[in-house]
Known about the structure:
Blueprint (H helix, E strand, L loop, with lengths): L5 E7 L3 E10 L2 E11 L3 E2 L2 E2 L2 H19 L5 E6 L5 E10 L9 H12 L7 E13 L2 E4 L9 E12 H13 L3 E7 H9 L2 H6 L1 E6 L4 E7 L2 E8 L3 H12 L3 H11 L12 E5 L6 E5 H25 L9 E4 L8 H9 L3 E3 L13 H14 L10 H6 L6 H4 L6 H12 L1
Parallel strand pairs: 1-6, 6-11, 12-17, 17-18
Antiparallel strand pairs: 1-2, 2-3, 4-5, 7-10, 8-9, 8-10, 12-13, 13-14, 15-16
This protein binds adenosine-5'-triphosphate (ATP) and magnesium ion.
The site of adenosine-5'-triphosphate has 23 residues, from helix 6 and helix 7.
Amino acid sequence: MSNNDIIVSLDIGTSKVRAIIGEVTSGTFNIIGVGSADSDGIRKGAIVDIDQTVQSIRSAVEHAEQMVGIQISEVYVGISGNHIGLQSSHGVVAVQNEDREIGEDDIDRVIKAAEVIALPPEREVIDVVAKQYIVDGLEGIQDPRGMIGVRLEVEATIITGAKTPIHNLLRCVEKSGLKVKDLVLMSLGAGGLALSKDEKSMGAVLVDIGAGQATIAVYEEGSLSATSTIPVGGEFVTNDIAYGLRTLTDQAEKVKLKYGCAWIDDAASDVVFKVLRIGSNVEKEFNQEDLAAIIEPRVQEIFQLIRQEVKRLGYNELPGGYILTGGTVSMPGVLKVAQMELAASVRIAVPDYIGVRDPGFTGGVGILHHVVRSYRGRSSGPSANKKNVNRNKQSAAPVQDTSKKPGLVERLKNMFSEFI
Ligand SMILES: Nc1ncnc2c1ncn2[C@@H]1O[C@H](COP(=O)(O)OP(=O)(O)OP(=O)(O)O)[C@@H](O)[C@H]1O
Ligand SMILES: [Mg+2]
């Protein structure tokens, strides 16, 4: 990947489809364009209507294109959902170079060896992430390139997903006239972007609370160790407001965005608004406290469910605490409720890039971050040049460096063509 390369991420969420255009500069990137469109055809993170989703993708991509004045032809697509699974794996190969110096091809082969696992027919490998390499028995190596050895091993995490949702996702993007460059697990992208190195190594939980789902990603010893999705999010809160104020969902969503507060003590009784009552033309006045009295218990419940799920995954107290992101955590007071319910250190993560300083963009920006880091220092990345490979050799993050291997997109495409 070279300077001035343009890369585009696509986050197909329950409430919004977001296309983000990044320009690669010196091993990192700037955001030069953003396009959002309301999502139709997605329920709780799952595609339920292909044509409507295609429309939303086209609209988000067109907005981004207009902002930058370019035409987008290929995208990196985020994937998430309760069908995602992680599996540990181990690969071993003999180093093939005559001088025994470990090269790119050895890494590709050892990753391929790790990828050979028994999978049920309805599941597919999405990605392979190296946790550590072992060279002639020496453990803890993050980047073995250039080392001398005979036996190269890798401890890896294999990310798998169910074929049907993967197929639907690929179908929608390709039907929108775009080429899928790669699929990126959103938790992996968001984790790389939002979590510090210390948080990842000490152990921390990243929670993306969107509109229809909350995605939990547990990081430990520097890498992603568990992930889970629960079907709660901002829509859950909106539905409760609609029910509580006896109004339509779109009115409830509007008042939530404008006056919503998750912590009753922070809500003001003199901030008032009117909503149209369902089944009549009569407007009724409420104040922010009335609204917070509906929101607070719902948000409490969301965090209780998150805490239970983290416990179910086998984690109790992680020193890095919780890092919250996703559109729902924009609401004032959410952090306080989270601190109470999770009884741990909690912070909110927002992407630190102009134009996307909103927790709803963490997933999409995280995809770009993951792509740039993955190809940094790799000669096999898209349009990688020698200069970049050399310059970034020391600073590259090898865990992600090896997560891409040639043939992944090809495999996904083959799989895709099997379906149609
Ligand atoms: N300022 C705000 N106050 C309250 N809620 C907000 C605010 N901004 C966004 N939201 C809520 O955040 C949710 C959207 O979050 P996000 O964009 O992360 O979801 P998504 O990616 O479309 O959905 P998902 O990840 O669940 O598939 C909506 O429910 C919206 O109402
Ligand atoms: Mg989302």
